[in-house]
Amino acid sequence: MFVFISIVLIFVYIFSTVIKPKKYPPGPRWYPFFGCFGLINSRMKQHGSQWKVLSEMAKEFSTKVLGLKLGNQLVVVVYGEKNIRQVTTEKEFDARPDSFFLKLRTFGKRVGITFVDGPLWREHRPFTMKHLRKQGFGKPPMEQDIQAQLNNILDVLGKSNGSSISIRTPMSIALVNIIWKYVAGEHIEENKLRQFLQFSSARSKAFTLAGGYLDQWPWLRFIFPNWTGYNIIKNMNKEILDIIEDAIWRHHSTVEGNDYIYSFLKEIYDNKDTYTEDQLKGVCLDILIAASNTGSSALDFAFICLLRHPNVQNKVYEEISRVLGDDTPSWSDNGRLIYTSAFLSEVHRLCTVAPFLGGRRALTDIEMEGYLIPKGTTILVSLGDLHQDETLWDEPNTFKPERFIDENGALKTPANLYPFGLGRRRCPGEPLGRCFIFIMLVGIVQKYRLQCNGPPPSAESVIGLLAEPIQFTAQFVKRL
After folding, report:
1. How many CB atoms lie within 10 A of CB 165?
2. pLDDT per position in the chain (480 positions), as tens?
3. 302 with 344: CB under 8 angstroms?
């Protein structure tokens, strides 16, 4: 009798795992224990990324609110301007998923500012931005730092003598060193930084924001540490923790200064409740990870678009030459370089670096498009689909910078284009990202013509946590 009851209970439990909540958004059927994992992973072989698979599923079910279950986690993907604005602006969506993967990212603890919520996030995001701005973040000193790094990049290009090279790593190093100056008042030792960047890129490609086997079944890391990607995160955490702890140790050991770490340590010394060294390490990690891939990926996409569209490259150069001459570019030039700014907007649209915004967690039961999203559901926001929505963009798959220029030749304010997100969780690094991308692109095209020996590189991207361009090299030929 006991065996019979046990078997019945097991079957009841299995059956309950495949029943969808009342009014749950449409989506594929669920299987016991795995939910939609198997179906999504099998389709990834065809479409190449989880983002593209889910985009196709949303079309298949004719919905802008796609309902999934990954392992035991309810996941909803939202599409369309109205739904994206709801998720990014209403407080019921401010929370982050409380998952194993996200805690593993921050040394196994829920710290930092990117993937925390509630009072900790509301206190530490403004504190972080306030003290970074004190050091010049988003102000003229930051622009000067970018211009100095531009000169370093131009030196690298000059030494290449027109041979084919990749400047992705030098770009990442430049961007990280700019932000780290405001955080720690120093640059990172190049060997350590290169190692960290390699792990960061591998992590971005290996994982997805919609979760993975490691997130659902953490015990798999003990059996398959490589296959689950656990070793990638473990190795990256070690590299980045060495960088952060070295900087904190030096700040403890030296006289007081003005950078972000000094400001934070002062709060620790004053015994402020949420100001701990773990939280300081978490914020430093968030800043380093955010700077390590996004800006350099956007620039690489821009270079690919120049290589694939020589006529566009000529127009960009002609405008820069006519408006700036040999003057060093500055952020204030973006309003004068109309076509160049439109070109960058089109790069952001067609080559969205973050096709999914960082995951959200529903704080209450919420209705959307007539469906019910249960409390605790993980919500993904598909920016990539919005940026290629054929109802919003004429010929969305065609590269056309002119779409951002009006009939009077003035730059249009890009509507429905959010490369840095929107709402209260909009990317805090946007001022640096926009300025860095603009000055670097203008400064390089001003001095060098981009070309390649064979066919131009593919515009396809490798999409994991973020979208990265396929690795490529190009020739940077000095303009006469």
Report:
1. 16
2. 666 566 665 565 565 666 888 999 999 999 888 888 888 888 988 888 889 999 999 999 999 999 999 888 999 999 999 999 999 999 999 999 988 888 888 888 899 999 999 999 999 999 999 999 998 898 899 999 999 999 999 999 999 998 999 999 999 999 999 999 999 999 998 888 888 888 787 776 666 655 567 777 888 888 888 887 888 888 888 888 999 999 999 998 876 778 999 999 999 988 888 999 999 999 999 999 888 888 889 999 999 999 999 999 999 999 999 999 999 999 999 999 999 999 999 999 999 999 998 899 999 999 999 999 999 999 999 999 999 999 999 999 999 999 999 999 999 988 899 999 999 999 999 999 999 999 999 999 999 999 998 899 998 888 887 889 989 999 999 998
3. yes
Of 432, 388, 424, the C-alpha closest to 92 is: 424
* 275, 127 Cβ separation under 8 angstroms: no
Domain boundaries, the chain: 94-352+387-478
DSSP string across 407-448: TTSPBPP-TT--TT--STTS-TTHHHHHHHHHHHHHHHHHHE
**Amino acid in the structure at residue 325:** G
User: Helices H, strands E: what count in the chain?
Assistant: 17, 11
Report whether CATH 1.10.630.10 matches the domain 94-352+387-478.
yes
Instruction: Tell me which residue of 19, 29, 43, 69 sits closest to 378, measured CA to CA.
Output: 69
Q: What is the DSSP string of 383-418?
A: HHHHTT-TTTSSSTTS--GGGGB-TTSPBPP-TT--
Tell me, what DSSP letter sits at residue 95?
B
pTM over the 0.85 mark:
yes
Please provide the DSSP assignment of 251-314 as one string.
Answer: HHHS---SSHHHHHHHHHHTT-TT--HHHHHHHHHHHHHHHHHHHHHHHHHHHHHHHH-HHHHH
